[in-house]
Predict the structure.
Amino acid sequence: MLSEITINQNFPFQERYELLSETDDEFSFLWIIHQSAKGILQISLHFQENDSKTGLIRVDYNRGHKNPETVNSNVPEKFHPYVGKQFSNIEHNIHYHVQGYPSLAWAIPLTDDDFEIKSIDENDNNRSFANAITSFAKTIHIETIINVNTLLL
């Protein structure tokens, strides 16, 4: 296990990290951080088994999304108000795995979730970008210390 990692932010930012469990080496996780040239930021965690990539959680900033039109018995109650919801590009959202649906098909607004960083401010010297990455690491229980060297403009 790495005790510390430093991420040097560049623009657009693209990075993939394979995360291994200390207790079960049969499974691994893929942490993907993707930022487009338009400033759209996605941070996601995928569970990998036999080369399949099942999305478990994803945070989207500045990216639209449409939730499924119907619910099954696996859809948590907190998603019910958002059945069929069309998220605009300014409605930052968080996706969760729900069994019986395509990978990460369900999302709720970040404002209705416990995830700490609700938006990305382009005018804060990229601190909110760094905070979003470290908050995501905390959310998925990464024990490695994450340092982000922000982009100097």
Summary: Strands lie at 4-8, 14-20, 28-35, 41-49, 52-61, 65-66, 86-87, 93-96, 106-109, 145-149.
